[in-house]
Amino acid sequence: xxSYTPPIRDMQFVMHEVxxxxxxxxxxxxxxxxxxxxxxAILEExxxxxxxxxxxxxxVGDREGCTLDAKTHExxxxxxxxxxxxxxxxGGWPALSxxxxxxxxxxxxxxxxxxYEMLNSANQAWTMYPGLTHGAxxxxxxxxxxxxxxxxxxxxxxxxxxxxxxLTEPHCGTDLGLLRxxxxxxxxxxxxxxxxxxxxxxxxxxxxxxxxHLVLARLPDAPSxxxxxxxxVVPKFQVNADGSLGQRNGIWCGGLEHKMGIHGNAxxxxxxxxxxxxxxxxxxxxxxxxxVMMNAARIGVGMQxxxxxxxxxxxxxxxxxxxxxxxxxxxxxxxxxxxxxxIVHPDVRKMxxxxxxxxxGGRALSMFCSLLIDRExxxxxxxxxxxxxxxxxxxxxxxxxxxxxxxxxxTNACMQVFGGHxxxxxxxxxxxxxxxxxxxxxxxxxxxxxxxxxxxxxxxxQGATLKKFGKLVAQLVEEEGVNEKMxxxxxxxxxxxDQMTKFTTELGFKAFQNPDEVGAAAVDYLRVLGHLVFGYxxxxxxxxxxxxxxxxxxxxxxxxxxxTARFYFARLFPETATLMRTARAGARSLLDTQEALA
Length: 598
Prior knowledge:
Layout: H1 8-18, H2 21-25, H3 36-54, H4 58-64, E1 67-68, E2 75-76, H5 81-90, H6 109-143, H7 146-158, E3 162-166, E4 182-185, E5 191-201, E6 211-217, E7 230-235, E8 237-239, E9 245-248, E10 251-256, E11 267-280, H8 286-322, H9 346-378, H10 382-417, H11 429-437, H12 446-458, H13 464-480, H14 487-513, H15 516-550, H16 556-572, H17 575-583, H18 588-591
């Protein structure tokens, strides 16, 4: 049986010692009273909920899955899921970072994201139910009418109702410009929607009395393509003027997908047959409104893989310390035993440290992005808000794609540590691998994220936002450039920072001549930039650890942080050299292949 211990100490290190979030919040009026003790208390309680309530249900959900009643279109979730959600609502967790105007607690996004990391470690399939609700809340909060906000936000905030986003259709995939779902205007100002949606996570379940679907559809006069998409809120049960539930709406679950992983989450095929909805935002501008939810979901997906990387690492580490097999090449280490624990073997340590480095680097990046969102939403200085929004836009595809790719590498490595036992269900490792695999695919595949990063976020503004991140790197290099003890961390990011300018300019010039060059280089480019971002945060974490050690702090935590940083820069960061070479190889070796792919 797997186990999970919330990584509270490392979260506190990133929040309080690296990012110093409590000091940041003093400049943000809505969060000025949020201090270190408040944050720590919430982390402790959130960790207990994740480890004690949802984690024990993870394997249950994987084994049982969800079941659909074909006659009633109702879905039964795995044993204990509904009761866990009731405890989640009772504890006030849905309201953590929601707007106080609608019943929220108004706490910073950083706190909410840390809680969600722990939930994802504990049970990704269960966490997707409240996770999607939070995204629906964000979209309606940003673009809903006053009436829509009054009707839906208090109940989404409390957790009384849940939400989904209904985007793609069987023939669409990522190309939402192809969608066919229709919305016909009615005399009373509502719309009747007809069509089919697929891959709707948490699309139907037994947790709550009403599910609020955000649906993309076309109006009769809609132009073709993505410029003709509108967004509608379509509840499972219509809502009366007094807030009570009315008649069943014409939206239901027509089937459940049979999936590789996340069996405990109901991935629904949704049928709309004259379903009554109301328009969110402006006509034909639905994709812009939905992007609020999609961007939140992309960061959320990165958090899913971060959570799985952490829990997989914890279990692999415990197993490697206990499992004995063969002797160390340099001589017996456990002389009182017939063999040594496998953690003595260099390659086992490489696999463990890979997962540890990707988990701790991902945690630093995700918390930094959360802090940027807090600045964007709550800082009184308009320039700070604008700069923070730009930086979040740049880093979002990295959080989504780099963290999920790394999660795939890490969960597979941790399963490998178990040898044959990793392939067996009772240990839980193969479930982590299966559950993580979807994270690289949905909310825009990682290739789509890479195209968004290189084509839109970097080349789209001539590298302006990238240069702003480069200034952060340059500031750290200038600050620590003469410190010999920091050289092994500073020199690699200084070198790559310089190389990125030439690398990006070169790709931009080639793309100007042939746009396919962006598609040929984008995935490699994202991983290069991902490593620069991780390298920056690993250097900052090493900086703090070194200062503590030099000040006489004997806590082994800091020595462990330095050792992990050294591993990252020695073994993982050098991947950038190969990636830049393959990115520069160009499109010809991919596209001039008609015979090879005949």
